[in-house]
């Protein structure tokens, strides 16, 4: 448990609010599959999302992802939703692209899409 907490502290320290100012805000993730998610990131420790178009329309959640800065304006985020679905993402704010891997039981989905800053 001590090692896990230390790793979490390192990840949070690498994703400080000062470093992640460009990551904060409200975004649309428009996946190539046609699904669209509104994502709100208010601080370095939480985010919320809602599916506004696609097969999951209406689904939503408030998450506490592990996040860190990979490079200038490129971030990695990973979390497990209340339903048990695991999500990992790379968000590239240079190219305004998002790449996601979603694991639901034995099913794995790999998605790519555009990021649009709303606020």
What does this structure look like?
- By secondary structure, the protein is mainly β.
- The chain has one domain (2-117): Lipocalin, CATH 2.40.128.20.
- Helix content is 11%, strand content 55%.
- The chain contains one helix and nine strands; from the N terminus they run αβββββββββ.
- It has a nine-stranded antiparallel beta sheet with strand order 4-3-2-1-9-8-7-6-5.
Briefly characterize the structure.
With 119 residues, the chain is mostly beta strands.
Helix-strand blueprint:
Blueprint: H1 2-14, E1 25-31, E2 36-43, E3 46-53, E4 60-63, E5 66-71, E6 74-80, E7 86-92, E8 97-104, E9 107-117
Antiparallel strand pairs: 1-2, 1-9, 2-3, 3-4, 5-6, 6-7, 7-8, 8-9
Residues in β-strands, percent:
over 45%
- Low-pLDDT runs of 5+ residues are 1-18
The ordered string of helix (H) and strand (E) elements is HEEEEEEEEE
Helix content: 10-25%
CATH architecture: Beta Barrel
Query: Which shape, going by the Cα principal axes?
Result: globular
Taking the sheet with the most strands, its summary is: 9 strands, antiparallel
Number of strands: 9
Overall pLDDT: 86
How many separate structural domains?
1
Instruction: Provide the structure class.
Output: mainly beta
């Amino acid at each position: 448990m001590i090692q896990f907490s230390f790793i979490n502290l390192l990840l949070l320290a690498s994703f400080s609010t000062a470093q992640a100012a460009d990551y904060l805000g409200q975004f649309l993730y428009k996946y190539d599959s046609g699904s669209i998610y509104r994502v709100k990131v208010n601080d370095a420790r939480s985010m919320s999302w809602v599916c506004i178009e696609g097969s999951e329309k209406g689904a939503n959640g408030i998450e506490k992802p592990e996040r860190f800065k990979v490079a200038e304006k490129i971030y990695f985020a990973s979390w497990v939703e209340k339903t048990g679905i695991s999500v990992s993402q790379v968000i590239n704010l240079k190219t305004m692209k998002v790449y996601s891997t979603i694991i639901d039981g034995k099913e794995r989905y790999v998605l790519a899409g555009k990021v649009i800053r709303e606020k």
